[in-house]
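R.M. (postdoc): so does anyone remember the format we settled on? I'll just put the structure tokens first.
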């Protein structure tokens, strides 16, 4: 069992806290124009779009996770929630540094001209919602309960995978937002 890939509420909380600090460092003091600036003549996402994409992705995951948790078997042992094989590969594809670019599903295409405060509050709220679900999911068999991923439409992931995918997805796009902030053409 790959315990470095095991999920728990404490691990999720700690990783989210670290991600919140990164987001704060990236977004601190930005004007609306800077927050929405897109590198490479608008061909790449802005910091705002990275956060909006993550917010939408987190919220799309909520309903299928709630359904999986509602029908799951109560947790019997203390075994940590670990992802299945396909999920481990997929998580590796999401992790920064990005090796494979992926097209965003239409459900989570980010908006434009976003308010920095509102976008940050929406992002934080979406992460809090996923954390609440993990607290509920901790009472079920995370590794044995299948999750219907809303983007793949197959039960190829278990519930533990959903939370690890969420973390990897956030790391990917927060790193992308950081690259925007440090882009040589970033407006000052």
């Amino acid at each position: 069992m790959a315990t470095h890939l095991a999920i728990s509420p404490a691990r999720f909380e700690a990783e989210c806290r670290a991600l919140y600090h990164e987001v704060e460092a990236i977004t601190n003091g930005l004007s609306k124009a800077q927050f929405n600036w897109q590198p490479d003549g608008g061909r790449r996402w802005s910091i705002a779009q990275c956060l909006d994409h993550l917010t939408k992705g987190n919220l799309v995951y909520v309903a299928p996770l709630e359904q999986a948790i509602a029908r799951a078997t109560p947790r019997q042992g203390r075994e940590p929630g670990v992802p299945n094989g396909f999920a481990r590969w997929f998580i590796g594809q999401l992790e920064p540094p990005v090796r494979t670019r992926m097209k965003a599903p239409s459900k989570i295409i980010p908006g434009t001209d976003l308010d920095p405060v509102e976008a940050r509050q929406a992002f934080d709220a979406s992460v809090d919602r996923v954390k609440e679900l993990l607290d509920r999911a901790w009472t079920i068999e995370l590794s044995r309960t299948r999750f219907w991923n809303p983007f793949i439409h197959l039960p190829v992931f278990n519930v533990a995978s959903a939370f690890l995918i969420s973390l990897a997805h956030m790391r990917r796009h927060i790193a992308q937002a950081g690259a925007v902030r440090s882009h040589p053409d970033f407006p000052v």
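R.M.: ...and that's the designed sequence above, right after the tokens. Also worth knowing: The chain has a mean pLDDT of 91. Residues 148 and 155 are 5 Å apart (CA to CA).
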